[in-house]
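We were asked to recover a plausible sequence for a given structure. The inputs and outputs are reproduced exactly as logged, with field labels preserved.

PROBLEM: sequence recovery
POSITIONS: 267
GIVEN STRUCTURE:
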């Protein structure tokens, strides 16, 4: 593998664009291939086996496209499939869960809440990982079934969005000092969430990207080229719907977005 190869980013859909934004900010000279599995979203209501199957197809596509490392940006996929994927590829691969856990541990909080998908909530991973290191931190986890599909569909187009968000936020304990956004889609509505929570809002993407940087450096894979990197997006569902929302979030026009049928990939 050579330094000039791309970094692969995997998400169930649009959400990982929030991680990609951090990636481009920290390593603007890296080429990136992003895959959003918009045909199979939401992962949050699926089984571990389904998520592993979908994630492995994406990883195979990224390897076929000569990626030098892979970022599993999706929290749900990181929990369901990170170790499984590591067993299926021989390039470095990082997930996003530990980044959020580290920020909570370093923050000195007594109580935190975690907003995430139902799969992530059921896994109990955040609570377990935080309490393994510090038993004293109280961790409340709230699984939000509707938020990811609403953001994918277009948040502003959903009439009762405020009521739905209110309902989820009503489960955030009043004594929480911080709220971890443990789904890559939620930074898209961070300002809406901020109106309903006065404590610290934690978005783990910058920390995850620092781990990507350390991993590339340790493996002598950082791109030494100084010119601006190229970013290509591939989605398994509708191209235009993804493109519009990603461009709005990134405040950038003319993103290169292509449709890919991952079931058609031949080795
Ligand atoms: N955005 C993903 C996450 O970080 C999952 C959303 C979904 O597909 O349900 O968990």
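RECOVERED SEQUENCE:
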């Amino acid at each position: 593998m050579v330094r000039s190869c791309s970094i692969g980013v995997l998400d169930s859909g649009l959400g990982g664009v929030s991680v990609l934004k951090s990636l481009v900010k920290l390593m603007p000279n890296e080429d990136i291939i992003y895959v959003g599995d918009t045909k199979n979203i939401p992962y949050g209501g699926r089984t571990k086996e389904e998520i592993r199957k979908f994630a492995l197809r994406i990883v195979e596509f990224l390897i076929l496209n000569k990626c030098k490392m892979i970022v599993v940006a999706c929290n749900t996929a990181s929990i369901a499939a990170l170790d499984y994927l590591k067993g299926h590829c021989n390039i470095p691969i990082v997930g996003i869960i530990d980044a959020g856990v580290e920020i909570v541990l370093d923050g000195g909080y007594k109580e935190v809440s975690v907003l995430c998908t139902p799969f992530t909530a059921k896994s109990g991973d955040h609570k377990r990982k935080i309490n393994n290191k510090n038993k004293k931190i109280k961790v409340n986890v709230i699984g939000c079934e509707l938020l990811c599909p609403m953001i994918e569909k277009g948040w502003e187009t959903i009439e009762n969005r405020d009521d739905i968000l209110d309902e989820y936020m009503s489960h955030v304990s009043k004594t929480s000092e911080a709220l971890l956004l443990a789904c890559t889609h939620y930074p898209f509505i961070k300002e809406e969430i901020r109106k309903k929570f006065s404590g610290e809002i934690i978005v783990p993407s910058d920390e995850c990207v620092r781990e990507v940087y350390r991993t590339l450096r340790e493996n002598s894979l950082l791109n030494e080229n100084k010119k601006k990197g190229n970013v290509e997006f591939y989605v398994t569902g509708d191209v235009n719907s993804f493109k519009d929302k990603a461009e709005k979030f990134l405040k950038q026009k003319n993103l290169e977005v292509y449709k890919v049928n991952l079931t058609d990939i031949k080795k």
